[in-house]
Amino acid sequence: MTEPEHHPPATPAGRTTGERTKREEGTREAADGAAAKVSRRGTWARLNPLLRLLILTQLAFNVGFFAVLPFLAEHLGTAIGMAGWMVGFVLGLRTFSQQGLFVVGGALADRYGVRPVVLAGCVLRIAGFAWLGYADEDWSVIGSVLLIGFAAALFSPAVESEVARQAVVWEESGGGPRTSVLALFTVAGQAGAFVGPLIGALLLAVDYQVVCLAGAGVFVLVLAGHFLLLPQHIPGRARVEVRGGLGGLLRNRRFLALCCAYGAYLLAYNQLYLLLPDEVERATGSQAALAWLFGLSSLLVVAAQLPVTRWAAGRLDLRRSMAGGLLLIAAGFGVVGGARPAEWTGNAGLLPAAGFVVLLTLGQMLVAPAARAWVPDLAAEGRLGLYTGAMSSVSGLIVLVGSAGTGSLLDTGLPAAVPWLVPAAITLAAITLIPRGVVRA
Description:
Layout: H1 17-41, H2 43-46, H3 49-66, H4 72-79, H5 84-100, H6 102-112, H7 114-134, H8 138-172, H9 178-204, H10 208-229, H11 246-250, H12 253-270, H13 275-284, H14 288-315, H15 318-339, H16 346-378, H17 384-410, H18 418-430
Keywords: Cell membrane, Membrane, Transmembrane, Transmembrane helix, Transport
Protein name: MFS transporter
Pfam family, one: MFS_1
């Protein structure tokens, strides 16, 4: 769905250039004053109840998810005894079964609506976490991880596409830039990502099985809340057939280019669960500092996402925002890659890892809201769920292949910096894939 052309109104006869300039300056000042007044009221206070529910949904999803996931790689490697490449493959498989199947969840949300798809996803996530808690063989771990991923493939595109649609409606009604709503969505997710690992770290002192069951318990509460509060039908959301729309999507080169660039970002972000735990273990001999690094990332987003989004909205179009974010992420990999040959340990050994987390998080603040805000402008009418899911599916496939490759680098005799410099190079190359053309933020 492309933006309509906007033609400037004809200049009234007899109006001088100076008068026009004064009038335009006055209009801009009035608009700036109105925008400042809106900003002082705060975005959250002006959102409708549905948007508030969906944003809080993201918070709850991530509390349950991040209580379990950050500790999965260590559990697979030590308790179950998987090789490094297998751990990387399982993590990539989890991401692919989630992100890769988003297109299915998005199409189902377009056809049946948000509520049934979200409720079904919650039921599957509960089953997947409970299964993972008792899985002690490779096939069982893979089965539970696939179920966990597919659950998110149902509820996440349904929620994300509706948040994006509501953000466009909010923007068109004069509420402010759509990126402000999507930034709040990101903040809620990161608040959950901050609380979740802390809960998981506390429960890990008992047993990883307890961590998994606690994650399942969170989704039991989410299921009950959404059964009671989520509307049966959302006004303005027309249902379409599941079939159709895919051909136009595959011919949309700008959208596919956006998907690939976003996939490179997601591959980089996935290294929080693969490269970062390995680096923390090497530097300190334990995983204790991992929860604090995840907490640092989440606190940065909670504290700085909205100011960064406001700053970017006034200075950068969507393409430049994504390019700047990818550049920061590549720099984060470069920090650890550059320091890795020194073999620092202890607190000094954690400094490069902390630098990586900070730069990755700053890059995420620019990339994620911009990519989500771009999709409604590229999606076909009535197919926002399909396009939202497709972007995650393409990026999930990139993560599946890339994570297995990154995991294999950890098992080779290559220089210690290589597993960090390769993702840096991939992230830099992704900047060239971002669609050309200025798109408003």
